[in-house]
């Protein structure tokens, strides 16, 4: 019954897709291309993320922080600091691989972050790469994020939201609109906010994985 | 690229519908969380494919939506899994208590 309903939904969706016009209607891409320079980012996706839809991105970074806080509240923040991935020593091949991959991933992550303002790349991609590096280091038996005391995690988790909050409210003090970006410092602001969001993403992603991981033969 | 024959759009639709079926029918919280994730991936695929219609550069607005969406989906899944595990433990403990009496 449910299967038939889902198959029916698939047929309806495919028919809907067949009716899509071949050219996307609307002028959003042109509007973005025309005014991307004002946001301080020449890459159109970054211009949308941190310029035209900065409000949306801000709240999504806040959702990320809220999810991390929720996970820590359920699992216990103190349990994450100092936690080991497994009671057994990690396989030697994993340690060897981590010592090769982690430095390279840190370089690549930093490069992607830097690239973000002018080419495909940016905070979310760089944060994912750096977060994966932190997770790999932890799985390979290095401290990684587990070496960071629970108290120090909070500012790292909140960095992105705080940076957005600052860029959103400082213009208010000067009498401008919320999230209005002064033309002269737009590019520096984009890089600063992206760096802060990168830190938050790079800490949140491995942290939530570490928190929900349960070693198979750990004592309960 | 013509929208009607775009394989990415069709794969996205297939993912959404298969995951919807699993979301409704699968037993256990973990499977439903995974189904929700697969469904989200299908939606992302459809959005990205729809952004690439026509000639020239793809529309950057859906790209920005999907980019943040992927990261948010991972984080909210982790929260869901943490809650599901907690629930599982509570159930286990209740069963143990029931057996001991």
List keywords for this structure.
heterodimer, A: 220 residues, mainly alpha, 9 helices, 69% helix, B: 101 residues, 82% helix
Task: Give structural notes.
The complex is a heterodimer of chains A (220) and B (101). By secondary structure, chain A is mainly alpha-helical. Helix content of chain A is 69%, strand content 0%. Chain A is built from 9 helices and no strands. Chain A has helices at 2-18, 28-35, 44-52, 54-75, 77-80, 92-115, 123-139, 150-173, 186-212. In chain A, helix 4 (54-75) packs antiparallel against helix 8 and helix 6 packs antiparallel against helix 7. The radius of gyration of chain A is 21 Å and the shape is globular. Chain B has 101 residues and is mainly alpha-helical. Helix content of chain B is 82%, strand content 0%. Chain B has 3 helices and no strands. Chain B has helices at residues 7-25, 29-51, 60-100. In chain B, helix 2 (29-51) packs antiparallel against helix 3 (60-100). The longest helix of chain B is centred in the last third of the chain and has 41 residues, at 60-100. Chain B is elongated. The N and C termini of chain B lie far apart (67 Å). The model of chain B has no long low-confidence stretch (mean pLDDT 87). Chains A and B meet through helix 1, helix 2, helix 3, helix 4 and helix 7 of A and helix 1 and helix 3 of B.
């Amino acid at each position: 019954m449910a299967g038939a309903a889902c198959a029916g939904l698939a047929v309806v969706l495919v028919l809907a897709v067949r009716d899509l016009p071949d050219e996307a209607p609307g002028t959003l891409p042109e509007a973005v291309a025309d005014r991307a320079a004002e946001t301080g980012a020449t890459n159109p996706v970054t211009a949308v993320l941190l310029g035209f839809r900065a409000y949306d991105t801000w709240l999504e970074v806040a959702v990320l922080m809220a999810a991390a806080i929720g996970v820590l509240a359920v699992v216990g923040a103190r349990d994450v600091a100092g936690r080991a991935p497994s009671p057994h020593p990690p396989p030697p091949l994993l340690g060897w691989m981590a010592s090769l991959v982690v430095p390279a991933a840190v370089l690549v992550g930093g490069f992607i972050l830097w690239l973000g303002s002018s080419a495909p790349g940016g905070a979310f991609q760089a944060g994912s790469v750096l977060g994966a590096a932190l997770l790999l280091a932890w799985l390979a038996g290095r401290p990684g994020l587990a070496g960071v005391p629970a108290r120090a995690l909070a500012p790292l988790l909140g960095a992105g939201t705080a940076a957005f909050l600052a860029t959103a409210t400082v213009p208010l003090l000067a009498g401008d609109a919320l999230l209005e970006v002064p033309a002269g410092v737009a590019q520096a602001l984009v890089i600063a906010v992206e760096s802060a969001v990168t830190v938050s993403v790079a800490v949140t992603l491995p942290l939530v994985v570490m928190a929900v991981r349960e070693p198979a033969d750990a004592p309960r | 690229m013509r929208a009607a024959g775009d394989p990415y759009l069709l794969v996205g639709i297939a993912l959404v519908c298969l995951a919807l079926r699993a979301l409704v029918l699968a037993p256990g919280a973990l499977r439903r969380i995974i189904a929700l994730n697969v469904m989200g991936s299908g939606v992302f695929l459809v959005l990205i494919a729809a952004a690439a219609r026509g000639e020239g550069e793809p529309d950057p607005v859906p790209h920005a939506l999907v980019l943040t969406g992927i990261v948010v989906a991972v984080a909210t899944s982790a929260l869901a899994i943490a809650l599901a595990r907690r629930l599982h433990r509570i159930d286990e403990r209740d069963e143990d208590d029931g057996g001991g009496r």
